[in-house]
Amino acid sequence: MAKVFCVLSGKGGVGKSTFCVNIGKALSENKKVLLIDGDISFRSLDMLLGLDSMVVFDWADVVFDRCQKEKARLFASENLHLLSSPLSLPDSFEKSDFQKLISEYNEMYDYIFIDAPAGFGKFAEIYASAAGEIIVIATPDDISLRAAYFVGEKLIEMGTDENKMRLVLNKTDFRQMRNGRQRNLDTAVDKTYLRLLGVIPNDKSLVFSGEKGVDSASKRVNEAFFNIAQRILGKDVKLYY
Ligand SMILES: Nc1ncnc2c1ncn2[C@@H]1O[C@H](COP(=O)(O)OP(=O)(O)O)[C@@H](O)[C@H]1O
Ligand SMILES: [Mg+2]
Questions:
Q1: CATH top class, domain 3-232
Q2: Would you state the pLDDT for residue 215?
Q3: Contact in structure between 45 and 17 (CB atoms under 8 Å)
């Protein structure tokens, strides 16, 4: 049975899709990982993985029996697979449709990550209720942190176990934290009321441009994702890069 993670944020542009791709790469060294692009109309995982020219099917084709589950996937590597996002879905689409999709792939993977749209709309709620674990991504500024807190509140309102919710702080810069230009880790955690799963540096190797794609990640970025992957695997490793 796969462990299913829903990756959420309050604000957009904080790094949900970047997180999904890089944690997928880190975990797929030893585990089978499926990424599900859930950002309807604004899909990006196909591009971030360099697979955009290969997209033929999306996960709605599986939900509505237009494509076999094996054929709908794209392979980023032997162990890292992608289900691309549909461009639209009927208004009648509901939680049970998405749960059916997850159950199709549950036995085939160790980890499934669902890349949600920003905020807490209909789809974020559908994905969160299909996932056993939630990761909220935020950047260390008050606007993003307040939005992450709001997402946490919504998750609790819908009955999510607090122990299943974790915070990842992205685009962090310890020098900026020291000189007060970014909130420090303690303040960031206090403001969201979420437990910290990991910290990712602000690093130009993670900046995506269509022109050149993604650079290979720098050493400290690899280390940050390696540590988060280890913690997801249940190992006790340091929190910081
Ligand atoms: N740690 C980071 N350091 C530098 N740039 C980053 C980092 N994480 C993400 N980015 C950049 O920020 C932008 C938004 O990231 P993205 O993953 O698309 O966010 P989201 O999915 O939350 O909207 C992208 O241009 C991405 O390359
Ligand atoms: Mg995204």
A1: alpha beta
A2: 63
A3: yes
